Backbone:
């Protein structure tokens, strides 16, 4: 049976003592990671062949004498961190072998993605409804209970803007997901003025949380800049900004999860554009709105949720002019400024909504998946303005093995 690993991230409600222990855990994790990375590099330079299993034994040997404070924490925490160093090098060498140019594993910095993983060894952790028991820490309350049935493989503690979370990966069978109608296809235009436009004509606005919180954010940034550098008050002001950023990100992610889940449940085949987000970001006025909608995250979620149900997301190349091509006759408009929301095709006279027309073209591209959609209609008109719709072979992603679902 095919299975996938689903990860549920749950917010924790630790008391003061537990929070202090959590901070020590992520500290120990970072310490062990950096220690193992430095030791790996030293051994490599000395002509030895470093490996993570030997490093873990080495760490255990020095722990009681040199690092007594680590003995008060779950022993799994430094062990998993050292395993992560092994994984980082494995990935690094795999990518080098594949001819890529990966970044060399880097040292972890305090406050940057602080986390600590505990494996599923005996007595390491235990879940019970809306609480979790962690070795050496005890029972910690959770905001919700685990959504999936199955044996958790590990748990990872992480901090984000003063809040604590636990991520729990669980292996679940693929067949648990509802079947979809394989004939259903749709094109999706991700835009700035309307977040999502479907080829069915439906339009959905994004949550635009950033706009709503922008004034508060600006105020907090002003307050931050007025505080003396290195002062306690400045640090507090920075924490308030981080908190607001985190809230905005959560609202956005929640909306993205709901929207992509609904779409993946309705359609089997998607045509989406490979947006040049970096290029669009250069245009400052657009940048904020784009960041607000979170295009990258939207497509990432749509891809894995569709793959889970056996469907496909066809990513159409950026230079396919989905907005400027008439979906009816295939003729191509030389220019179509972003401000033009509606236009009429000069060849066939069809009135177009800019975004719906783009979505329809993306749907056709998905259906054709690599060949010109309806080449009879779009290639033979005599006018110099008409041309074959240039659809490039699209990349179809169908296999995934790790997904993550939303959190409360
Ligand atoms: Zn036309």
Residues:
């Amino acid at each position: 049976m095919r299975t996938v690993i689903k990860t549920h991230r749950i917010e924790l409600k630790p008391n003061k003592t537990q929070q202090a222990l959590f901070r020590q855990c992520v500290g120990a994790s970072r310490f062990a990671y950096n220690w193992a990375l430095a030791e790996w590099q030293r051994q490599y330079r000395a002509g030895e062949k470093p490996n993570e299993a030997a490093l873990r034994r080495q760490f255990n040997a020095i722990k009681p004498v040199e690092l007594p404070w680590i003995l008060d924490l779950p022993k799994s925490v430094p062990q998993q961190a050292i395993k992560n160093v092994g994984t980082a090098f494995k990935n690094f060498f795999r990518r080098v072998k594949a001819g890529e140019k990966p970044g060399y594993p880097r040292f972890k910095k305090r406050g940057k993605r602080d986390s600590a993983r505990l494996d599923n060894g005996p007595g390491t952790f235990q879940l019970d409804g809306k609480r979790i028991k962690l070795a050496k820490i005890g029972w910690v309350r959770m905001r919700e209970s685990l959504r999936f049935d199955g044996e958790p493989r590990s748990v990872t503690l992480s901090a984000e803007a003063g809040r604590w979370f636990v991520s729990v990966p669980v292996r679940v069978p693929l067949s648990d997901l509802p079947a979809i109608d394989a004939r259903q296809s749709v094109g999706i235009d991700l835009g700035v003025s309307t977040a999502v436009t479907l080829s069915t004509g439906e339009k959905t606005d994004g949550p635009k949380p950033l706009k709503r919180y922008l004034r508060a954010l600006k105020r907090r940034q002003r307050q931050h800049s007025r505080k003396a550098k290195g002062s306690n008050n400045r640090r507090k002001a920075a924490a308030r900004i981080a908190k607001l950023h985190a809230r905005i990100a959560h609202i956005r992610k929640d909306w993205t999860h709901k929207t992509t889940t609904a779409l993946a449940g309705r359609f089997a085949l998607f045509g989406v554009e490979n947006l040049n987000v970096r290029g669009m970001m250069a245009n400052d006025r657009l940048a904020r709105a784009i960041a607000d909608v979170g295009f990258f995250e939207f497509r990432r979620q749509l891809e894995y949720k569709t793959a889970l149900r056996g469907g496909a997301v066809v990513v159409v190349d950026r230079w396919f002019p989905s907005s400027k091509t008439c979906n009816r006759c295939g003729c191509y408009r030389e220019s179509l400024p972003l401000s033009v929301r509606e236009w009429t095709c000069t060849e066939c006279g069809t009135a177009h909504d800019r975004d719906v027309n783009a979505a329809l073209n993306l749907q056709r591209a998905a259906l054709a998946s690599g060949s010109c959609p309806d080449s009879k209609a779009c290639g033979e008109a005599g006018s110099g303005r008409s041309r074959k719709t240039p659809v490039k072979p699209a990349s179809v992603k169908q296999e995934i093995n790790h997904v993550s679902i939303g959190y409360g």
User: Anything to note?
Assistant: Residues 326, 328-329, 331, 345, 347-348, 350 surround zinc ion (CB under 6 Å). The first helix runs from residue 16 to 45.
